[in-house]
């Protein structure tokens, strides 16, 4: 078997007496798609921030392409090398882009030493935007278009891993479907590996190969997405599935089950 694109090895992170991440380990296959699910406070976003480098783990390590990811780097070359390992697309496309800066300026920051125009056009094409979008500012774009620009920015340095933290949660349902289809196409074309952070089990079912379920900072269930969502082994995973509204759904029963856990 080939080396995983990403490995998290026994990550821990505490804030005072609260262990936000408590011994979390997982592996993301090269060209694969892994979901991390759980309710607010489960530790999934903190785990993602450790992987990207926005948070520092108290212990454990992150390994990308077989190399331990350093906690700090110096110099432009080191920062660029680190950026090529892991990039992140955030939840809110309205806040993740500078409203004063054109799309071309956002993307060309990654290519200061050469003519960026061909690469900018290529990136826009990857995310399904026309070349004329390069001249637009974020305020002139729809939410879906802004998220496409954010994804193009993340892909600009050709990362091994793209972390998507609730990346479609702020979008309308129809636009969510477009972005998810786009991400599937990009993965097929580029073999980038995806780490999805989400509470939406519908998203997980559509776009991930494997999934881990987190609660109180720990991984409580893991496996192939189809297996975990079809035949969950842990009561908490079953509760997450039962909490999704469906015919015959009883919110009082769900609340009682939650209290019992």
Q: Summarize this, please?
A:
With 261 residues, this protein is of the alpha/beta class.
Structural commentary:
- The chain is α/β, with parallel strands linked by helices.
- It has 2 domains: 221 residues, Rossmann fold (3-Layer(aba) Sandwich), CATH 3.40.50.300; 31 residues, no CATH class.
- Helix content is 38%, strand content 24%.
- A 6-stranded mixed sheet has the order 6-7-8-3-9-10, with helices on both faces. The chain has a 4-stranded antiparallel sheet with strand order 2-1-4-5, with helices on one face.
- A hairpin with a 2-residue loop joins strand 9 and strand 10.
- Helix 5 packs parallel to helix 6.
- It is globular and about 60 Å long.
- It starts with 5 loop residues before the first strand and ends with a helix.
- The mean pLDDT is 87.
